[in-house]
């Protein structure tokens, strides 16, 4: 679609010795792919560690600073853009959804890291100085492995990548210490929302699927996230509405239909209630400012 938000596949960014992964210094990457500064999506996992630069970025329409020592992670499907005030540098790694699958016995391994949960506030992390040094060394080792003349040792690269995840996760260890049963419930609730947000809108519908009471589900969300179960469902619907509104080839009525609203009028009232502006106003603001 001519006016649709661009979606990039890992094959669009080949530069490493394996089709499933792309690794580069960020300064070079930023200059070579200036079209990626405006709003776009990926079909792959994506992470950037900034060592230089300033500005801001948007992840799923939430704004975050760009500054040295900051690392962020993204999962496939999220909407992203950058705006730099000073020239950035650092490291970037993109890897396909199945890049680690043959290496790990647990298919949901990445889900054990909070920064791969698809929630922007958990995905942007400012690293302590001592951790920055460790992370920089890991990135350099991965880059060196891609530069040697011999075929790249994928197991070594994958091991370094997993080590990077673990080192970053340790900086958030306090937030990881949750009751494992409740943590699993919350993860399963979020997974169910991701699959069913357009059809199921009520907490009691999800509680039934999780074999718990609506009150238990609501208490769980309030305790760990500070919001109700209903708000979590609603926020996912609003997010998808925003993603669809960036596609200028979709009429508002079509978006209302995709999200299973009874009619366009109800969708407009719903969106305005929670965003403070109409869908058309949101579309205008977010398609005339480099996508965000």
TrEMBL record:
Protein name as catalogued: Helix-turn-helix domain-containing protein
InterPro entries for the chain: AraC-bd (IPR003313), Homeodomain-like_sf (IPR009057), HTH-like (IPR037923), HTH_AraC (IPR018060), RmlC-like_jellyroll (IPR014710), Tscrpt_reg_AraC-type_HTH (IPR020449)
Domain of life, source organism: Bacteria
HTH araC/xylS-type domain location: 187-285
Keyword DNA-binding in annotation: yes
PROSITE patterns referenced in this protein's UniProt entry, alphabetically: HTH_ARAC_FAMILY_2
Annotated Pfam families: AraC_binding, HTH_18
PANTHER family: ARAC-FAMILY TRANSCRIPTIONAL REGULATOR, TRANSCRIPTIONAL REGULATORY PROTEIN
Keywords in alphabetical order: DNA-binding, Transcription, Transcription regulation
UniProt GO molecular function: DNA-binding transcription factor activity; sequence-specific DNA binding
UniProt source species: Pedobacter planticolens
């Amino acid at each position: 679609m001519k006016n649709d938000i661009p979606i990039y596949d890992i094959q669009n960014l080949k530069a490493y010795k394996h089709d499933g992964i792309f690794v580069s210094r960020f300064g070079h990457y930023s200059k070579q792919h200036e079209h990626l500064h405006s709003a776009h999506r990926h079909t792959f996992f994506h992470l950037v560690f900034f060592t230089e630069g300033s500005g801001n970025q948007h992840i799923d329409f939430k704004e975050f600073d760009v500054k040295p020592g900051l690392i962020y992670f993204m999962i496939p499907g999220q909407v992203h853009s950058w705006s730099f005030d000073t020239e950035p540098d650092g490291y970037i790694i993109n890897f396909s959804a199945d890049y680690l699958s043959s290496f790990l016995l647990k298919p949901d391994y990445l889900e054990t890291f909070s920064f791969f949960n698809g929630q922007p506030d958990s995905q942007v992390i400012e690293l302590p100085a001592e951790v920055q040094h460790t992370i920089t060394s890991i990135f350099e080792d991965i880059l060196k492995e891609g530069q040697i003349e011999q075929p790249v040792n994928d197991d070594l690269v994958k091991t370094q990548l997993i080590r990077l995840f673990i080192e970053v996760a340790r900086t958030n260890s306090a937030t990881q210490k949750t009751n494992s049963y409740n943590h699993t419930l919350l993860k399963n609730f979020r997974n169910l929302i991701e699959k069913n947000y357009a059809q199921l809108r009520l907490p009691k519908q999800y509680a039934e699927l999780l074999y718990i009471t609506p009150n238990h589900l609501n208490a769980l969300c309030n305790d760990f996230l500070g919001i109700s179960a209903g708000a979590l469902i609603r926020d996912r619907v609003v997010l998808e509405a925003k993603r669809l509104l960036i596609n200028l080839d979709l009429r508002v009525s079509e978006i209302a239909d995709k999200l299973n609203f009874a009619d366009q009028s109800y969708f407009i009232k719903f969106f305005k209630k929670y965003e403070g502006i109409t869908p058309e106003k949101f579309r205008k603001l977010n398609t005339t400012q480099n996508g965000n």
